[in-house]
Amino acid sequence: MYTDIIRLSPIFKEKVWGGSSLHTNFDYDIPSDHTGECWGIASHPSGSSTITNGPLTGWTLMDAWMEHKKELFNEDNDEKAFPLLIKILDANDDLSVQVHPNDAQAHELEDNEAYGKTECWYIVDCKDGSEIVLGHHAKTRAELEDYIEKGDWDGLLRRVPVKPGDFFFVPAGTIHAIGEGIVILETQQNSDTTYRVYDYDRRDDQNQTRELHLDKAVEVTTIPDEKQENAFSYQNVHDLSITTLTENDFFSVFHLDLDGIYEGSRPADYLLATIIEGEVTFTGKDTHLLKKGDHFILPYELENFKLEGTAKAIVSYPK
Predict the structure, then answer these.
(1) Strands 251-265, 240-247: parallel, antiparallel or unpaired by DSSP?
(2) Contact (Cβ atoms closer than 8 angstroms) between residue 233 and residue 221
């Protein structure tokens, strides 16, 4: 049925910490200068991408998953939700310090989520001196609660400097935050559950602070913190350089760097892809010019394809 790529129109989310980099960096038509998130490949009750080519033009990805799961994704489980969510985030200001539950905790604590939230970040761009929060220094739950009660965020939080091209794996249970001036591509489990720990006492236009979720946050935080180390692997196939960024229990993520021509096939039942630099001509059933900021899926029935151009992409598939 579907032997061509599935091109997707993204959804944009305005955030108190958002900016305009999704327009300046990716030429997206964003709703305002406080746009924080581009949901590029999304099939979630809070937002679903729209298919823009082929026989399912105009369908949401959620509807395509529900109605054509076998043909498009080789998936037989009728109750399973789409497993991954791909975002680009523009942190014009610091994001809240937060933590996410794992699958079991999400099922216990939330009624509307199919998954917990393990994620990873590829730093697309950032200002000089930018930092993320990744982890904490508490050794026990009591110590974590004491840091929070005292508001000793400098003592609690582990801050890490970043530069473009850096990659970070952020498993569920990790206290984290994206710092001001950073644009990331995020690959995550398909969940929108976030427990805020600290939000810098910010107030919105109505002089209201955003809700914190301290009880749930403490419950799901990994204590003591487990520092993550990258174990990249590298492969060159003709004109294509492939860096394996992570292979974990939930997804595999790769950085592709093409300078020339590549002909090949999918390494999994389907692939999710975003062009982050340059442009490439994709030839399968049809020919597509794909440029920076384009999001697409290589479905199950698309077996062989050709790439030609100079481009970089982040590609993933679920486990």
Answers:
(1) antiparallel
(2) no
* DSSP per-residue letters across 153-171: HHHHEEEEE--TT-EEEE-
Q: Is 7 in the active site?
A: no
Structure-block tokens of residue 153:
């965020």
Identify the CA nearest to 195 among candidates 91, 100, 103. 100
Residue 81: DSSP 8-state: P
| Helix, coil or strand: residue 277 | strand
How do residues 278-317 score in pLDDT, each as one tens digit? Answer: 999 999 989 999 999 999 999 999 989 999 999 999 999 9
Question: 195-198 and 97-99: which strand pairing?
Answer: antiparallel
CATH number of 233-318: 2.60.120.10
Residue type, 57: T
Condensed to tens digits (0 to 9), the pLDDT of residues 207-256 reads 788 889 999 999 999 999 999 999 999 999 999 999 999 999 999 999 99
pLDDT 10s digits, 36-94 = 999 999 999 999 999 999 999 999 999 999 999 999 999 998 889 999 999 999 999 99
Homologous superfamily in CATH for domain 6-220: Jelly Rolls (2.60.120.10)
Which one of the listed residues 159, 196, 210, 266 is annotated catalytic?
Answer: 196
Alpha helices in the chain (DSSP H): 21-26, 61-67, 69-73, 103-109, 141-150, 153-156, 214-220
Kindly report the pTM of this predicted structure. Answer: 0.96
Closest CA to 117 of 66, 63, 44: 44
